[in-house]
Amino acid sequence: MSSFREVPRPVIALGTDYPDGHVIAPHRHDRDQLLYGMTGVLMASTPHGAWMMPPQRGMLIPAGVIHEVRLFGDVKMRSLYLRPDRLGDTDNQCKVVGISSLMRHLLIEAVAVPAEYDMAGRDGALMALIEHEIKRLPVLPLSLPLPEQAALREKCRAFLASPTPHETIDDWCDHLGMSRRSFTRQFRKEIGSSFVEWRQQACILAALPRLAAGEAVTTIAMDLGYDNPAAFSNMFKRILGASPRDYRTSDV
Known about the structure:
By secondary structure, the chain is α+β, with helices and mostly antiparallel strands. The protein has two domains: 2-140, Regulatory protein AraC (Jelly Rolls, Sandwich), CATH 2.60.120; 146-247, Orthogonal Bundle (Arc Repressor Mutant, subunit A), CATH 1.10.10.60. 36% of the residues lie in helices and 23% in strands. It is built from nine helices and eleven strands. A six-stranded antiparallel sheet has the order 1-8-3-6-9-10, covered by helices on one side. A five-stranded antiparallel sheet has the order 2-7-4-5-11. A hairpin with a 2-residue loop joins strand 4 and strand 5 (49-53). Helix 1 (101-110) packs across helix 2 and helix 8 (217-223) crosses helix 9. The protein is globular, with a radius of gyration of 19 Å. It starts with 10 loop residues before the first strand and ends in a 12-residue tail after the last helix.
């Protein structure tokens, strides 16, 4: 992205493919960024939260926000970099967004546009339309808050990467050297919800890469400690507003 820093254009597009398991180290951009994954699942994390982006969705990352990116499955990524004054108020928070059919086609076209395109020609019109469409993208509930306290934050990150239904509050307390009362009070103070509520949401988000890879809902449900697939599906829909089936393929 540093090569685009001095390019006098409001929007620049870039296409990059990444292998399964690739990690992009913590970094920041001078421009706002819209990530779009044609395939695979992406997890971005900042000191304040984590966001899971399934296939065919997008993620808005404001300029200046330090973020790390982890990729699950082979990811065909298309990125837009926008001057910070183009999107208006982004409240300095990452967001996962829905990508319309029109926006998908615009993104595919945009990566073929040269960085210093003719703003008065067809390429300039394409980028101007993209700026209009970005502001219409709906925000999706695919974020998970993380605590500020370093040891607790790292424990939360580790759980999100490899959730287990068998760990209890007492297990976390032992690991962190905290009393149960101190742990529950600190967790709610920093996260704004109980440990049980946060763990449910973390498990649902952690299921997204497995769903995108085509794993059976029954297998995922049992691994996450649910008694049956229906119970998992009900919790999934309550948290994300959609069924697991909606996240199983990349052609939605």
